[in-house]
Protein: Methyltransferase type 12 domain-containing protein
Amino acid sequence: MNSDCTQEHTVHVDEFLYDNATVDALCDEGKLARNYCLQCGSFSTRPLTFISHSLSREKLLLIFKSVLPPLDNKIVLDIGSRLGAALFGAYVYSKAAKIVGIEINSDFCNIQNKVIKKYNFQDRIEIIEGNIAHRPDVILSADVIIMNNVFEFFMEPEQQTSMWRFLRQTIKSGTLLVTIPSLEETFSSLQTGIILSEWVQELPSYNPDAAGITLSADEMLEVKQYQIM
Ligand SMILES: C[S@@+](CC[C@H](N)C(=O)[O-])C[C@H]1O[C@@H](n2cnc3c(N)ncnc32)[C@H](O)[C@@H]1O
Structure:
């Protein structure tokens, strides 16, 4: 009993005075520590931030079942396809005729190709290894483009700006663009000079209840659908 209560690493907090909610609040305020450093013993630690560079299964359901209209006979392009999550989501949750992923990193292309081969997805999914900036032809062939925070963690703001200017020039009118996060949020920290109201029109979800999943309100708000004007 209480064998894990070593002298140096045990904090005595009387529940009569401090209930769980109060302890949580004190930890959030930094007045009480919940962790200690295994190397130096310091109580001065902070939680790490976790970030996903792939779409979750719930978000894929939301995008392909609720947000987008039926994709029969359509070509879907995922810019920066990484592990292939959006491609596999499009394959399973939509009837898109062709699903294209372009990815700059060759290791990720190899992983995606292995999965595609393993599960026989070749009939509808194709991976292109390369930089989207050099493939306007791929952009022009797409009816639907998915962009899950493609550039923010992978290039400097100046490069991000020129990528967005290139996309502004290249994506054809009528294309559906699904972005995570919103274009408004992405552009708020970049000087693109692009006037969103002249480029895109935000569209509501095609069938809001169809996915039948529970995502937090914040997560739902991150997924936006636009049509290029
Ligand atoms: C945040 S991940 C998105 C992953 C995937 N679309 C998903 O939603 O699961 C962004 C990916 O874009 C790739 N990428 C960044 N810049 C690119 C570019 N210019 N052309 C092609 N891929 C790029 C990165 O290597 C990274 O794998």
Notes: Residues 12-50 form one domain. Residues 53-55, 78, 80-82, 85-86, 102-105, 108, 131-133, 148-151, 154 surround S-adenosylmethionine (CB under 6 Å). Residues 157-170 form the longest helix (14 residues).
